[in-house]
């Protein structure tokens, strides 16, 4: 999918525990998250099952990114809610 998106001219950003992966080589920007993943990748050691530590780290990273984008755009949570897709 990343290759297809790049082929169509999209920029590809990746957050990963493995910055040497095949998809990382194709990405325009790579953010390495030093957290344990499902498989042993030489990352952090944790008692949490499977990819939980990576998923929690990714949540914090993306929340911080959204907050920074909101600050740069001068928008607030109410404006974000108004644009949020409702699938219920």
The gist of it:
The relative contact order is 0.11. With 88 residues, this protein is mainly α.
Describe this structure in words.
The protein is mainly alpha-helical and 88 residues long. It has one domain: Glucose-6-phosphate isomerase like protein, domain 1 (Rossmann fold, 3-Layer(aba) Sandwich), CATH 3.40.50.10490. It contains four helices and two strands. It has a two-stranded parallel sheet with strand order 1-2. Helix 2 links the parallel strand 1 and strand 2. It is globular and about 40 Å long. The mean pLDDT is 86.
How do the helices and strands line up, and which of them pair or pack?
Elements: H1 2-7, E1 13-16, H2 22-26, E2 29-32, H3 52-73, H4 77-83
Parallel strand pairs: 1-2
- For the record, the CATH architecture stands as 3-Layer(aba) Sandwich
Give the amount of beta strand, in percent. 5-15%
CATH-defined superfamily = Glucose-6-phosphate isomerase like protein, domain 1
Shape: globular
- For this structure, what is the CATH class? Alpha Beta
Name the structural class: mainly alpha
Q: State mean pLDDT (0 to 100 scale).
A: 86
């Amino acid at each position: 999918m990343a290759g297809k998106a790049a082929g169509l001219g999209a920029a590809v950003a990746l957050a990963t525990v493995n910055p040497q992966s095949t998809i990382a080589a194709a990405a325009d920007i790579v953010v390495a998250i030093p957290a344990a993943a499902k498989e042993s990748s030489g990352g952090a050691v944790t008692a949490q099952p499977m990819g939980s530590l990576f998923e929690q780290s990714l949540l914090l990273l993306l929340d911080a990114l959204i907050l920074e984008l909101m600050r740069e755009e001068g928008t607030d949570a109410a404006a974000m809610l108004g644009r949020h897709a409702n699938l219920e």
